Amino acid sequence: MNSTLQSILAATASFFFITLLFAFICLLCKSSKTRSPRRRQHQQQTVNWNGNRTVPNPQLSSITIDESATFDPNLNRISMEELKLATKNFSADLIVGDGSFGFVYKASLSDGVIVAIKKLDTNAFQGFREFRAEMETLGKLQHPNIVRILGYCVSGADRVLIYEFIEKGNLDQWLHDTSPGNCNEQSSKLPLSWKTRIKVVKGLANGLAYLHQLDTPIIHRDIKATNVLLDSDFEAHIADFGLARALDGSHSHVSTQVAGTMGYMPPEYRDGVTLATVKADVYSFGILMIEIATGE
């Protein structure tokens, strides 16, 4: 057999081998595609603090998410339907605050528990895994000067947070809205005494120290009077963690956006510095102390 014939036979055998290999790979890919939609089907889950989940619902689409979680053992599972009922379908008449990324509603659940419901704006959305991770982190916070998040509920495009209800409203109202009105406590407030103001400052300091001294510190990034709630004993509670971030090992967080409120933000923020540290919270706390002392 001459060398030319050997070359032709070798080329022909190589061609058939490569063709068979390519056909085998195509069959594998086609088989994988037919099975993948089943794995991507939506799973409807109800999660409690112990991590229990319901049986997945294979009939829902892959982009739809329905999930609820509770971080308080005394709070039963809450569905979006119950939250809509408790807020009269998020009626404007029940709005008690306007926090970052959403309105806050006062609601009475079916068991009589009064809670604060915050419905997030669509522009506040992030990846669901990141959202769930942040909620579970905030759900673990236990301090008398931090507003407790009791749970959350997600249904389709709606994301709702459930907080403990703090009776006296935010600090800003008590500092600046003290003109006499009718007998309604929300419209008629007496100026805070010096004793109460010092109590508020101490409570804020304790709450911030708790956040900053966690194993993974949390920076609030928006300390201001409207984000401080007062209970019936005028104890201060830090609220609205919409801009909060957990810090990495270097105790810093790099953000592409300036976070906070003008007047409370440190001066370097105006220069475009995006490195956020606990020092930013301390600066905002100092500004707030001056506001508490002067009322301005």
From TrEMBL:
Binding annotation for ATP: K119
Principal subcellular localization: membrane
EC id: 2.7.11.1
Matches recorded under InterPro entries: Kinase-like_dom_sf, LRR_Rcpt-Like_S/T_Kinase, Prot_kinase_dom, Protein_kinase_ATP_BS, Ser-Thr/Tyr_kinase_cat_dom, Ser/Thr_kinase_AS
Pfam family, one: PK_Tyr_Ser-Thr
Localization per Swiss-Prot or TrEMBL: Membrane
GO cellular component, one term: membrane
Membrane topology type: Single-pass type I membrane protein
Key words of the record: ATP-binding, Kinase, Membrane, Nucleotide-binding, Serine/threonine-protein kinase, Transferase, Transmembrane, Transmembrane helix
Segments traversing the membrane: 6-29
Highest taxon above the source species: Eukaryota
Catalytic activity: L-seryl-[protein] + ATP = O-phospho-L-seryl-[protein] + ADP + H(+); L-threonyl-[protein] + ATP = O-phospho-L-threonyl-[protein] + ADP + H(+)
Domain Protein kinase: 90-296
Keyword ATP-binding: yes
GO molecular function, one term: protein serine/threonine kinase activity
Keyword Membrane: yes
Entries under SUPFAM superfamilies matching the protein: Protein kinase-like (PK-like)
EC class name: transferase
Family designation: Belongs to the protein kinase superfamily.
Designated name of the protein: non-specific serine/threonine protein kinase
Provenance organism: Vernicia fordii (Tung)
Taxonomy of the source species: Eukaryota, Viridiplantae, Streptophyta, Embryophyta, Tracheophyta
